């Protein structure tokens, strides 16, 4: 799970991108944070799928 600081930073960069745009450094940081977020999301989703038990 990503910590609150990283999630807040992701949201801040998304809002800033819509409002004023991002610098190249901020774009790189945003992409890195998004990749981290997606990796955590995929792992959590995979764990949920593995716990599903099909019953007939």
Topology readout:
Layout: H1 4-19, H2 24-51
Helix pairs in contact: 1-2
Structure description:
With 56 residues, the chain is mainly α. The chain has one domain (4-51): Helix Hairpins, CATH 1.10.287. Helix content is 79%, strand content 0%. It is built from 2 helices and no strands. α1 (4-19) crosses α2 (24-51). The model has no long low-confidence stretch (mean pLDDT 95).
Task: Please provide a brief summary of the model.
It contains two helices and no strands. The longest helix is centred in the C-terminal third of the chain and has 28 residues, at 24-51.
**Structural class by SSE content:** mainly alpha
CATH superfamily: Helix hairpin bin
Describe the global form.
Answer: elongated
CATH class: Mainly Alpha
Reported CATH architecture: Orthogonal Bundle
Number of helices: 2
Amino-to-carboxy terminus distance: 34 Å
Q: Estimate the strand proportion.
A: under 5%
- Helix percentage: over 70%
Rg to the nearest angstrom?
Answer: 16 Å
Number of self-contained structural domains? 1
List unreliable stretches of 5+ residues.
none
User: Whole-number average pLDDT?
Assistant: 95
Sheet having the most strands: none
CATH fold-level name: Helix Hairpins
The tally of beta strands, per DSSP, is 0
Order of helices and strands: HH
Subcellular location: Cytoplasm
Family: Belongs to the UPF0291 family.
Keywords: Cytoplasm
Pfam family, one: DUF896
């Amino acid at each position: 799970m990503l910590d609150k600081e990283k999630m807040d930073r992701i949201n801040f960069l998304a809002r800033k991108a819509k409002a004023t745009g991002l610098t190249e450094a901020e774009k790189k940081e945003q992409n890195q944070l998004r990749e981290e977020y997606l990796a955590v999301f995929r792992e959590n989703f995979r764990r949920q799928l593995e716990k599903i038990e099909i019953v007939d």
